[in-house]
Request: fold
Amino acid sequence: MNRLAPFLGIVVCAACGDRSPRPPSTTPAADATARPVADATAPAESPADPSPAAVSPSRACPPAHAATLGECSDGTRCVLLLEISATCVVKVANELHLPDVALPSDGGGLGDLAWPTRAGALVLVNMVDTWSWAALPAPLAAPRDALAKVTWTPATVGATEPEGYQYGVVSDGAKALLVGCKAWRDDCGPDADECEEWHCTQHVFVDPRTGKRLAKAPTWPFVGGAKTGAITDAVTLGEKGKERTCAVGSAAPDTWYGDALDGSIALSSTDWLALRYQRGSRAAARWRLDAEYMRGCDDLYDAVEGEIVVGPDRLWARSTRAGWEVHHGPFGQALTDATGKIKVFGDSIFVFAAD
Reply:
C-alpha cells in the first residue's frame, strides 16, 4: 500500500510532545504530489468566529516571496514562485515546469521543496527508488524548463518509515537541510498482531552539500514571539501551580489547556498564531511546524480551517479546497491579485522565502 501522498504537505524533535495533526479533507488529490486541503468557506456559527475585515485603501504588506506546487498556466504541473508586493498584491513571478522524473509515478515524484532565501537556490526532494535532491540557483530568473536540467543527487538520511517515507527538506532561514528520522517506533505494544501506528524517535538533519549532520534541530524561519507572558497586547499566558493559564486584558487568568508553545506570532491585540514543532508520525511523516489560529485564549480551528504556514512579518498562508490563500495580519481578508480579486495558488506544498 502506497500512503506517501498524505505526507506531502508542509509541514520535531524527539523532545517535543505529540499533537494530532488537523484532520485531512476528503477532497481527492489530482496526483500523488497534491495534498487535500480544507474548505475555503469559514462557518459563522460561533461568537468567536472572525468577521470579514474591511481592506484599507492604504493597506501595506512586507514585500515577500513564496513557492508552491500546483498547476501551470498551461495546465501542466509546476513549481509556482509567488511575489507579494508592498501593496499586498500577489502574483506569479515565475513558473518552473516539472520534468517527467519529478512527476508522480510508481517510482517517485516531487516530494518536498524549500526556498530558504529569495536570492538563493530552490531545493527539491524527489521520491525516486533512491531518494534524491537537487538545487536550482536563482529560480526567479530561471527559464521555465530549468528543472529538467538540474542534477539529482541520491542521498540517504536516517531510517525509512514503514510505508516508504525517507526524508524531506526544510529551511533554517539561510540554507536548506534534509530531514529524516533516526528510527521509527511502533505504538502497538508487544502483543499487537499488526502495527499501523508509529512515530519518529529522533529526527536527523543533514546539510545536503556537505553531508554533515547537525547536532540539534534548526529553528524554523519566521518563528519567534513569546512562549509565555505577553503573547499580544491583550493576551497573557502564565502558570498557576502546575497548570497553564491564559488571560485576556484585565480578566482573571483561567486554566489554559493548550500544549506548551515553541513560539507565537501576534496578528492583532487579540489574534495570534500558536506555534509548535511536531515530530513525524504515520499521518505526517515529516518534521513540521504546526500553527493554530487563536483569538484571545480560544482556538478558532472550526472557523479558520486548513493548514497554516507562517511567513515573515505577520504574513501567513492557509490551505483551502481551491488552493493556498495568503493573509497579512488577522484573518478576515486574504490578499488579492492586481484586479482586487482574492487569489489562491497551488494545491500542495507551500513555503515562504526569506527576503
About this structure: The first strand starts at residue 64 and ends at 71. The CA atoms of residues 37 and 178 lie 25 Å apart. The radius of gyration is 20 Å. The chain has no helices and 22 strands.
